[in-house]
Amino acid sequence: MRRLLDERYYTLQQNLEPHSLAINYRSEPAIIGFNNEFFSYVRERSEEHALVQGIFEPGFQQDFPGGSSALDSLGGHVELLFTHDDAPARRYAPTTGHYLAEMLPGYPAEAVLDYAESTCYLALQLIEQALADGYHLRDVAVLCRTRRQSRLLAKFLKERGFPIISADSLALQFAEVVNLLVAVMRVLHQGSDTLARAEALLLLDKVVRRLSPTPARARHIAEVANNKESSKPFFDELRSLGFDVNEQATGNLGLYELTEKLIGTFSLLGANAESDYLFRFLDLTLEFSLKYGNNLGNFLTHWDERKGSLSINAPGGADAITITTVHKAKGLAYGLVIVPFADWSLVPHAGELLWGRLAADEKPLPELPDVAVVRLNKTLTYTPLAEQDSEEREKTLLDGLNTLYVAFTRPRHRLYILSKTPAEPKKTTGELP
C-alpha cells in the first residue's frame, strides 16, 4: 500500500504545474500593498530559514485587479495600534488616531488599564467607529490567535450589549440562562450544595432582575447560600423576590417538565436574547429522559460530561460580530477585521518538549534509547540534537507567520492590528549608546 501511494504521489508531482494566484480579488489595494511589503520584509529578514524562504518566495506578492498601478490608489485602510500595561483609561478617537482627554465610562481621572483591558477597549472603539461609518455588525470580525483571547473579547463585547457569533457564544455552557437553570436543579437535587445556591442567586440578579452587584447584596447572598442547616432559606429568598419554585412538588417532576416549570417561574422566554439556548436545553432534557430516564442526578452528571460539546446553530443572516480564532477563519472574508493581541511569540515557549532522535553513532552512551523527550533550550545547539532543535524552531516561526498571513488577508476594506508596544531592545556588552 505504501509503495502504491508513493508511486501515485510521484506521478502527481511529475505532472504538476504550480501557478501563483497573482490577482487578489478580495481585498482593497491598501491591504494588498501592506501585505506585499510586510511579508517581503519578513522574507528578507529570514534568509537563514529555508522553510520561510520557500513559502514567501518572490512570486508570492499579489496585484489588485487592474494592475500594480492600482496599489497606489486610496482604497482600503490598514492601521497598527500599540498599547501596553498602564495604558491611560481614556477614549481613543479612531478618526484622528489619538487618545482624548475624556475618560472611559466608570473610570476616575488618572486611571490606567492593563494590556488586555486596553486592547478590549480599543477593539470596542474601532467597532463603534465602523458602525458610525456605515458598516453593519455582520461586516466585522475579530480574529484571535487563541480561544482564551476569543472568549475574553466575546465576554467584553457581550457585556456591552453587542450580539456575538463565536464558538463559545453558541455553546450552551456559556449561556447564563442555562447556567441559572442548572444551578437551581443542583439545589433541588442536593440542597446542601452551597456553591449552587450562590450561583443561582447571583445569576438570578444578573439575568432576570437585571441588577448590578453590590457589596451589601453579595454579603446577603453569601449568608443565604452558606446556611448549613437547610436549603429552605434559599427557596424562601426566591419566594421573597417573587419566584416561587414550589420545591416540594417541582422536585418530583420529570426532567422536561421540571425544565419547563423553571423557565416559566423565572419568565426566561422572551425576556432576553437567549431563547435559542433554552429550546436547545429543553431538547437535551427530553433526549436524556427518553434514553436514560428522569433521574436528576444522572442528568446533571451527563451535563457536566457533555456540556463542552453542546451548542446551538449559528443564526442565519444574524447582524452580529464574528469572534473566532484565526485558524477557523481560513478561506473566509470580512469587510472589517480586527486582529487583537498580535504579539504572539515566533519562537518555542520555554520548556516546550522535543522528541529527540539519536542515531547509534551519535549516542554519548550506547545504552541510551533511540528516542528521548528533552526540553527545548539554547544548550541543544551544542549537542547532536542541534539540527532537530533548529527544525523545531523554524516550524514554530513558520506557524506564527502563517497565522499572521491568514489574519491579514481576511479583510476586504479595513484591517486593524492591535499589538503590545515593543520593549526597548537590550544593549549587549560593548554596544555603543
Number of domains: 3
CATH architecture of the largest domain: 3-Layer(aba) Sandwich
**What fraction strand?**
5-15%
The helix-and-strand class reads: alpha/beta
CATH first level of the largest domain: Alpha Beta
Shape: globular
Instruction: Provide mean pLDDT, rounded.
Output: 82
> Which ranges are low-confidence, i.e. pLDDT below 50, for 5 or more consecutive residues?
68-72, 428-433
- What order do the strands of the largest sheet run in, or round the barrel if closed? 1-12-9-6-8-7
| CATH structural fold name of the largest domain | Rossmann fold
Give the tally of β-strands: 12
Distance between the termini: 64 Å
Radius of gyration: 28 Å
Main sheet characteristics: 6 strands, parallel
The percent of residues in helical segments reads: 40-55%
Q: What is the overall number of helices? A: 14
CATH superfamily of the largest domain: P-loop containing nucleotide triphosphate hydrolases
What order do the helices and strands follow? HHHEEEEEHEHEHHHHHHHHEEEEHE
Overview of this protein structure:
- Helices cover 42% and strands 14% of the residues.
- The chain is an alpha/beta fold and 433 residues long.
- The protein has a 6-stranded parallel β-sheet with strand order 1-12-9-6-8-7.
- A hairpin with a 4-residue loop joins strand 3 (90-93) and strand 4 (98-103).
- The model is unreliable at 68-72 and 428-433 (pLDDT under 50).
